[in-house]
């Protein structure tokens, strides 16, 4: 049996800002952009990896959550504690320089971690933590 990660989900609170970050800053392909009832779900992914994607979704679209839960989600997104994803690149310093030159919140500059990876961190426009590590 083979199991792969096909899609992961990150919330957005501004679809155009999310699109600019993932498409323009990170260089991801836009694979789908679906609107429904004034909300948008945007699927993006790295070029050359058609089976791996991130779905950027409206965080409170689930009809099963309460107004209090929506409020908590909004507060956690504003603090940057709601969601995140780890990415990898073969040119961490080059990617960091590109992202830093834009209007993107830097959380951590490239650092050699004591657990053996070199990585950096940013926040996307919704506050999601994006960690990027160097691969050999």
From TrEMBL:
PROSITE patterns: VOC
InterPro entries listed in its UniProt record: Glyas_Bleomycin-R_OHBP_Dase, Glyas_Fos-R_dOase_dom, VOC_core
Positions of the VOC domain: 4-135
Superkingdom to which the source organism belongs: Bacteria
Cross-referenced CDD domains: VOC_like (cd07263)
Pfam families for the chain: Glyoxalase
Signal peptide range: none
SUPFAM superfamilies: Glyoxalase/Bleomycin resistance protein/Dihydroxybiphenyl dioxygenase
Annotated Gene3D superfamilies: 2,3-Dihydroxybiphenyl 1,2-Dioxygenase, domain 1
Record-given protein name: VOC family protein
Organism, scientific name: Nocardia rhizosphaerae
């Amino acid at each position: 049996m083979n199991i792969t990660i096909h899609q992961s989900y990150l919330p957005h609170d501004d679809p155009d800002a999310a699109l600019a970050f993932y498409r323009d800053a990170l260089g991801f392909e836009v694979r789908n952009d679906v609107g429904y009832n004034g909300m948008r779900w945007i699927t993006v992914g790295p070029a050359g990896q058609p089976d791996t994607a991130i779905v950027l979704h409206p965080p409170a679209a689930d009809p099963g959550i309460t107004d209090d839960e929506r409020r908590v989600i909004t507060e956690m997104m504003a603090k940057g504690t709601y969601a995140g994803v780890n990415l990898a690149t073969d040119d961490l310093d080059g990617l960091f320089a590109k992202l830093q030159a834009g209007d993107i919140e830097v959380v951590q500059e490239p650092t050699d971690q004591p657990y053996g990876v070199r990585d950096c961190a940013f926040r996307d426009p919704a506050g999601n933590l994006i960690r990027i590590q160097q691969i050999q």
